[in-house]
Amino acid sequence: MSHGHEKKTLRLDEVTIPRNHWWNTFMVAGAVAGVAGIGATFALGAADHHQLYYSYLTSFMYFLTLALGGMFFVLIQYAARAGWSVVVRRIAENMMATVPVFAVLFIPVVLGMHDLFHWTHAEAMEDPILKGKESYLNQEFFLIRAGIYFAVWIGVALYFYRSSTSQDTTKDLQTTRRLQAISAPAIALFALSITFAGFDWMMSLDPHWFSTIFGVYTFAGSVVATFAFLAVFSVMMRRAGLLGGVVTTEHLHDLGKLVFAFTVFWTYIAFSQYFLIWYANMPEETIFYRHRWENSWANISAFLALGHFVIPFFFLLPRTIKRNATTLVIGSLWMLFMHFVDLYWVIMPNHHKHGVHFSVIDVTAFVGVGGVFLASFAYLTKRHATVPLGDPRLPESVAFENF
Amino acid sequence: MARHKEKIFGVLAQFESSQDIFRACEKVRDAGYTRWDAHTPFPVHGLDAAMGLKPSRLPWIVLVAALTGASCALLLQWWTSAVDYPLIIAGKPLFSWQAFVPVTFEVAVLFGALGALLGMLGLNRLPQHYHPVFQSKAFDRASDDKFFISIEAQDPRFDTSKTADMLRSVGATHVEMLEE
Fold it and tell me: ipTM, 2 decimals?
């Protein structure tokens, strides 16, 4: 570097969460919220199984896409051999490593299969169109595919997580080389698994409808929310002094740029899906937007276009907004909220076909699944250093500056 | 000589390393000079802050250009498709905004890019075929391994001897006067 950067070597105790730190309340509060929220969801939903499982699925997808987005972030950093991101990569690794928890959280989705997926009913197969899709949309294959997705995700997540955290002490250069080499094939597996998971768990809620871009749409929303989550937690943990003072405005600026870029990417994909369906004007495709343009759903659709694109686009556009921790957090929290609106808009019209119908179960499911996610994330964060101490690119990341 | 005395452009000072020029820029900035520049063979991190440069106005030029592009494109499509030559396509309304989005977006990007290029050239007063610093033989190495600060005579704080002394005191290894 050309000027006054003091050479900084991080000590383990600077990036370890202390025993009595308030961070630990995340684990307790998350666990309590998880048990209470999921308990309340099932108690309240006993009378209305459809509402129960639709609400649960929405929150399940919300937090699952955060975990998967974390995985994407980690994989892409290794594939690109990125230097800037090392100081915030552990946060994404901790998001990614919550994936095994989602295999357990998937059980209610399996239990609710008949309430969620119309195509699981025997009489649905009398419909010639659904009959034609039977070789893909049948219960056995659906469960086998879910098993494959979770096997891939858990395999990739734990492999990268364990390698990276063990490098904290071994400082072994070979670990980075190995992870770089397998990150590219892992990205291919990730792309296929999130695409088909999106098809299976969200698109097949309306089994007549199909959109080949739906997997990318799922991915785009997932990644926006993940960058926003990374920005929020980078700022929060930095203010709490948990990141050893190595996360600077420069890293926040880059995370802000990524939130902005993927907000535009989401819009590009969302509009592409809408545009082609609008142009071709085929009833089997337009039905998706017809449902979402009827009655009060039209308000949510308009709000989505405004809140997931127009407002954040102009808000996040200036450089100063992305370099100011407070405004970056405001923009990021907004995008985290809009990601929920997006999934709600995709999933819920399949249940409430004639208009928006908010339910208290939407809230309890969010609190429940979110509590479990937060508790797992906080626990993983506490177990290891908050910054990958052994990464050979750590000094490069610490010294990183935007031009 | 037709003229009695050539007009002074300013003073040019040479520095040996990026650290030296970085510290010198901070001193020149703190001394209150406003009409001066730093010349380095490669981008030096943080030099804009050391020079006390304000954020560029370029983003605003790009924003205005892009919004102009978007408006013009939308206006053109609306006028041609819905007003001047109305043609029903696929039974859709004459003003189908959905169909106009790609062109609107592309033209916004085109105008934004042109705004960035022309705005950059304009703010830098480029192209410029002659600059007084080119008189200096030493300045050839500004694109190789030496670092320079030039302070213009038009700067209100400029004083031929004091400014040169100040530059020497902050580490300049070679100082020369430049004529217009």
Answer: 0.83
